[in-house]
Here is the input.
Amino acid sequence: MRDRVKRMFGKAGKPLDAMVFVNSVEPHLDQTFFYVTDVPSGLFEGCTAVAFPDGRVEMFTSELEAESARAAPDVNVNVFTTRDDQAKQLQKLLGSSGKIGLNFHEITYESFLGLKKEVPQGEWSDVSEAIRRTRVVKDAKEIERLRAAGRIGTKVAEEIPKMLKVGMTELELAAEMEHRMNLHGAAGRSFGTIVAFGAHGAEPHFSPTDTKLAKGTTMVCDFGALYQRYCSDITRSYAFGRPPADRKAIHDKVEEAQRAAFDAIRAGVPAKEPHLAAAKVIDSSPWKGRFIHGLGHSIGLAVHDGFGMNGRNEELLEEGMCLTVEPGIYVPGVGGVRIEDDILVTKKGYEPLTTAPRGYLEVGR
Ligand code: GLY
Ligand code: MN
Ligand code: MN
Here is the structure.
């Protein structure tokens, strides 16, 4: 992980003696802790990682997860017994460090106050932007994991049509999808699975309920697998039975918008361009104004991993970024269609990470 650490210090653009990453309690864990340690298993609540400009990483962990910690490649593991003991060990390690970078984006205020007390000589500064820019371009190991997470998402998306039954609830379908993800090798889900029947589909982040599936209903299914801490994020929209007549036209329009976005993706292009390409397709259709979010986002250790492909982002796409491409059309009171895939940005275009069929599908007619 030394390369990752060195890149972060390089991007900080100022002299620093160390960077400190502090985990609070789930979900307030700094994913950068996992980025610099690459520890394969465990939660690591209340644990700390310290990185130095030469790439060295020191991890502080309790006995609870010491064994997993020792499996982390190229990391010095320090085991503490109590919080006070951790504070003392940290003081000792950072005794000669003055300028210390913190990830303001993911540290809690309580942890920051604790650190200030434990390391009184610290001159703290925010390095979250350097971290974001480092983490957003994935290395080979990360890409392998994102490919694997994407493959699991693809398999489950291909299986959804077989899962659909009259009378099943959104929650039951979500449970089935999550079960299948685990059977295909996921350690869990990368975010709360979205299953939205009928009008619920008009809300992009709908939480599943006990609403039952009936013939003639459309649905949005948005889910993702966690594979070795890396996230996939895929959405497919289906019609169950014979839906209202305009559903195929809406679906086809979203698919066309996604194709337009794909065509605009390659390294060197401003992130807003693929969004604008998709928005143009939808905004020149009868569903003008019904694409109500950004085209996509970076995926990695977090499902929203620090980069948005929206109409305002002038940052350039870079080789090695992994992004979602997820246009949608949302009609309040009626429903929605979203098609979401994950891609890896390459010099000339992109590599798809999720590949399940995207076309309009009426299941169970
Ligand atoms: N799953 C939430 C999203 O697609 O961003
Ligand atoms: Mn999604
Ligand atoms: Mn997404």
User: Anything to note?
Assistant: The chain has two domains: 2-135, 140-363.
